[in-house]
Write a structure and sequence with these properties.
heterodimer, A: alpha+beta, Sufe protein. Chain: A, three-stranded antiparallel beta sheet, B: Aspartate Aminotransferase, domain 2, 2 domains, four-stranded antiparallel beta sheet, 39% helix
């Protein structure tokens, strides 16, 4: 049964804060990689730009339009991957996907040691199956961009 | 001969509706969602089903299941009777001249595809024009785009104003000697506009164009008389008309249907087959290849009986009151903007909430047991016209009440509490 407490779990203050004031929303001047994801069913979109310095994600830009969950998740994601190298970033992606799928982190080898930090504010989304794809939209865009980096 | 039991009309077909009695016939309205009584405001997506329709499916499979038009055995004859009796019911429901003008399809989408593919390919050529409106559902855009791409024809669009009304002067300018086909929505699923289709048909006919009316939303909400409209084709879906999913009707004027090539081919649609030549069956079988959705047809028949028993005029009146009340209540809320203000509206209200994405509105309302649709409603050009990605849509059926609209009002207030 889903009551108001569940709603509070979904719309945590940190989520609403990132929705209202998305971080890293300025486009990068010379990104090393870009990715984009669109949900054709609702029209939500997220665009990710990354720039690298010495193998670390130095610059992040997250832009898009959509619901609070898609935009807040993307904004929190941008903060989480800043300063990380490629394997660390991939581990965060994997751990976050596991969180959304409701798997405990001990089930997941790569996710086992990852501290998702503020991203844990999105944990409530997993109780709303139709909103999980909102939450993962930005992450699809990020993975797009990471493929570009991995291919270089 | 055994025939299916006639389901009694829900109540005398006059006077105001007893909504409590009507609600009692829809078992799903008793369930709870997230601990709250279900408030179903998504009938434009699909309506709920009365017990008579649910029973008709069970009854068909329990007592009458056989293939149609094939067996000499009694059961096949009984299944065929149900199948063909429903065709007559559908004919009467939209006042077609002849039952052979009723073609069973999966739904409105298949009906439009049938016409675009069969009539369109045979009659629309290089440099010809097909006209649709700015407020079409994707299902009345894409089939015509495909046809126009294939034939080198032009797809033209009747624009609308910000009230959500078509600009009829602009329509007149689009019409010309190359106009071969006009396909228009009767009632827009995204904003609720009821278009002046009789006038559109008249204008199109003056230029020799053939007209299809997409009745997916209008059939459950507005009395429809295809002879009065004089449209050449009219399409509707059973599942929005309190019937089952997977069954719908294409109406077409006999001479047009008769001259059209088949859409799908196989069994049932032939008169004779040799390896050299196939002679197609007469209408309506020519367009009903393969074993049809017989149970769905039984359910459609029960749904039409049910709607006729209640009275489509009384349903329309009740829903008109709901729409008026809904507009009034939602307009009371600062921060709610209603999308479109058409001259004539039926069945639904689309709106947006300041600073809150429709999906988030939908989730908060769902926590209150209120089912609405949030999204672009398969009408992205309409969203683009209003410069918004999506709307919240509350759509009504005969079973909805003004109390439920009050609950919607309270639910929207809660949206502001969460996102305030």
């Amino acid at each position: 049964m889903r009551e108001t407490e569940d709603l509070d779990e979904l719309y945590r203050d940190v989520v609403l804060d990132h929705y209202r004031s998305p971080r890293n929303s300025e486009p990068l001047e010379s990104p090393d990689a870009e990715g984009e994801a669109i949900n054709p069913f609702c029209g939500d979109e997220v665009r990710v730009q990354l720039s690298l310095v010495d193998g670390l994600i130095d610059g992040v830009s997250i832009t898009g339009v959509g619901c609070s969950i898609s935009q807040a998740s993307a904004s929190l994601m941008g903060e989480a991957v800043k300063g990380k190298n490629l394997p660390e970033t991939l581990a965060i992606v994997k751990a976050f996907r596991a969180l959304m799928q409701g798997r405990s982190r001990s089930d997941d080898d790569a996710g086992g040691e990852i501290d998702l930090g503020e991203l844990m504010a999105l944990e409530g989304v997993k109780r709303y199956p139709v909103r999980i794809k909102c939450s993962l939209l930005g992450w699809n865009a990020l993975e797009d961009a990471l493929k570009v980096i991995a291919a270089v | 001969m055994t025939t299916p039991t006639a389901h009694p009309a829900p109540q005398a077909n006059s006077g105001p509706l007893d909504i409590a009695a009507i609600r009692g016939q829809f078992p799903i309205l008793d369930i709870e969602i997230n601990g709250k009584p279900l408030i179903y405001l998504d009938s434009a997506a699909t309506s709920q089903k009365p017990q008579a329709v649910i029973d008709s499916l069970v009854e068909y499979y329990s007592s009458f299941n056989a293939n149609v038009h094939r067996g000499v055995h009694t059961l096949s004859q009984q299944a065929t009777d149900i199948y063909e009796d429903t065709r007559v019911k559908a004919q009467a429901f939209i006042n077609a001249r002849d039952a052979r003008e009723i073609i069973y399809v999966r739904g409105t989408t298949e009906a439009i595809n049938l016409v675009a593919s069969s009539y369109g390919r045979a009659n629309v050529g290089d440099g010809d024009d097909v006209i649709i409106t700015a407020m079409e559902h994707h299902s009345n855009i894409v089939p015509w785009q495909i046809l126009c791409d294939e034939r080198g024809a032009n797809l033209k669009v009747i624009p609308m104003n910000d009230d959500g009304d078509l600009l009829m002067d602009e329509f007149e300018k689009l019409l010309g000697p190359r106009t071969k086909f006009v396909s228009v929505v009767h009632q827009a699923n995204s904003i609720g506009t009821v278009n002046p289709v009789k006038q559109i048909v008249e204008m199109a006919h003056a230029h020799g164009a053939v007209v299809l009316v997409d009745g997916a939303q209008s059939a459950p909400h507005i009395p429809v008389d295809v002879q009065d409209l004089d449209c050449d084709f009219y399409a509707f879906s059973g599942h929005k008309l309190y019937g089952p999913t997977g069954i719908g009707v294409l109406y077409g004027k006999y001479d047009l249907l008769n001259a059209m090539p088949p859409y799908q081919s196989g069994g049932e649609m032939i008169a004779s087959v040799t390896f050299e030549k196939t002679i197609y069956a007469d209408l309506p079988a020519k367009f009903e290849a393969g074993t049809p959705h017989i149970a769905g047809v039984a359910g459609l028949g029960a749904a039409i009986d049910w709607v006729q028993g209640v009275g489509i005029e009384r349903i329309a009146e009740h829903e008109h009151r709901l729409v008026e009340y809904g507009l009034q209540r939602l307009n009371e809320i600062d921060g709610v903007k209603i999308i479109g203000n058409p001259k004539r509206r039926a069945g639904l209200i689309s709106f947006i909430v300041d600073g809150v994405h429709p999906h988030d509105v939908g989730t908060v309302l769902d926590s209150q047991g209120i089912a609405i649709r949030a999204g672009h409603h398969c009408a992205q050009p309409v969203m683009a016209h209003f410069g918004i990605p999506a709307t919240v849509r509350a759509s009504f059926g005969v079973y909805n009440t003004t109390d439920e609209i009050d609950r919607l009002y309270e639910g929207v207030q809660q949206v502001f509490e969460v996102f305030g």
